[in-house]
Specification:
Blueprint: H1 7-18, H2 21-24, H3 30-34, H4 42-59, H5 61-66, H6 73-91
Protein name: Cytochrome c oxidase assembly factor 5
Keywords: Disulfide bond
Organism: Saitozyma podzolica
Length: about 100
C-alpha cells in the first residue's frame, strides 16, 4: 500500500512541534500550539507552510494532473532540507555566501 502524499511532511511537522517550548514547557497540545505559529521556531513555521502546500496540492486539479510537487520522496526531502537550512540561516549558523 502506498503512503499518502503528505505523510512525511506531516510526520516532520509533528516531530518539530513536539520539540517546541510550547508543548514541552507550557504543556499545550500541538494543535493548540499551531494556532499561534508566530511563537513557534522558524523550522516549524516552514513545515506548516510545506504541509499546507502539500494538502492544497491534493485538491488543486492542475497539480493532480501534473503531479503534486511534494508527492515525490526526493521533493519532500528537499523541502524539509530547505526548511532546515532557512532556519539555520536565520539563526546565524550558516553563512549565506557559502550557498547550499
Amino acid at each position: 500500500m502506498a503512503q499518502p502524499a503528505c505523510k512525511t511532511v506531516r510526520d516532520d511537522l509533528v516531530a518539530c512541534l513536539l520539540r517546541t517550548d510550547c508543548v514541552i514547557k507550557s504543556g499545550k497540545t500541538p494543535a493548540e500550539c499551531i494556532r499561534s505559529p508566530q511563537e513557534l521556531p522558524l523550522q516549524c513555521q516552514h513545515l506548516i507552510t510545506a504541509y499546507s502546500d502539500c494538502k492544497k496540492g491534493l485538491l488543486d486539479m492542475r497539480r493532480r494532473f501534473r503531479g503534486n510537487h511534494l508527492s515525490n520522496p526526493s521533493d519532500r526531502k528537499s523541502a524539509a532540507v530547505d526548511a532546515k537550512l532557512a532556519a539555520q540561516e536565520v539563526a546565524g549558523d550558516v553563512d549565506p555566501a557559502q550557498g547550499r
